[in-house]
Amino acid sequence: MKTPVNLAEPKTPKNELRRSLLKARQAIPPAVWREKSDRLCAHLHAWSGFAQARTVLAYFSFRQEPDLSPLFRASRGDRRWGFSRCGEGRSLTWHHWSPHSQWPLQSGTYGIVEPHPEAPVLTPQEVDLILVPAVACDVRGYRLGYGGGYYDRMLSSPQWRHKPTIGIIFEYARLPRLPIDAWDRPLTGICTEAGLVLVGGQATVTKN
Q1: Sheet containing 143-144: order of strands
Q2: 22 and 63 in contact (C-beta within 8 Å)?
Q3: Residue of 188, 197, 182, 52 whose CA lies nearest to 131
Q4: Which residues of the chain register pLDDT less than 70?
Q5: 35-46: string of b/e by CB count within 10 Å (b at 16+)?
Q6: What is the pTM of this model?
Q7: 55-198 CATH fold
Q8: Which end of the chain is more exposed for a tag (fewer CB within 10 A), N or C?
Q9: Contact residues for 11 (Cβ-Cβ < 8 A; gap 6+)
C-alpha cells in the first residue's frame, strides 16, 4: 500500500505566519475592507513619488488584498497602468491595461484576474513605480509574499532591482521583524491605511 503524499505546506516560520495573517485579512468585514482600502489609496495619491510616476505596475485585488482600483479606474490620461500575467518558470510579464482597453481581462493562474495576453507588453525601462502586493511587510521593508517567489525572482533581477517598490498591506500586517532568507530584498517603502512610510522611517504622508 502506497503512503499518501502530504501536499500541505511545511510548517516553517514563514508559512505559519502567512497562514495566520491571511486568515486575519479574510476575516475583515467588507465595509471595513472598503474603508481601509480607500484610505490607503488616498495616501498613495497624496505621495509625490506616485504623482510623478507615469507608468505604474499594480495588481487586481485577490483574497481581500487592499483594493487599488480607485486609483487606476479614475486615473488621469497621461499615466499608464501595468498588470501581471503569470508565466512559465514562475515569471511575471507585465501588460498595459485601462478601463477603456479593447482587451478584456481574464481569470488566470490561481484564479487571479490578469490582462489579456495580446494587451501591450511593458518593459522594465518604461516602469517608474511598482505597487507590490504582500501578506505582510516589516519596518525594514522586507516582504512576506505568498510563497511562489514570483516577485522575489523579478525584483532581484538586474533590470528590476533599482525600481521604486511600495509594499501594499493593511496596518495590522506591518510587523516589527519578519523572518528573511538570503535572497530577500527590502522594498523602498510600505503603504497602509495609516500612511506611507519609506524604509528608514521617513514618513512621506501624514498619518491618521
Answers
A1: 143-144, 136-138, 174-175
A2: yes
A3: 188
A4: 1-11, 200-208
A5: ebbebbbebbee
A6: 0.89
A7: Rossmann fold (3.40.50)
A8: N
A9: none
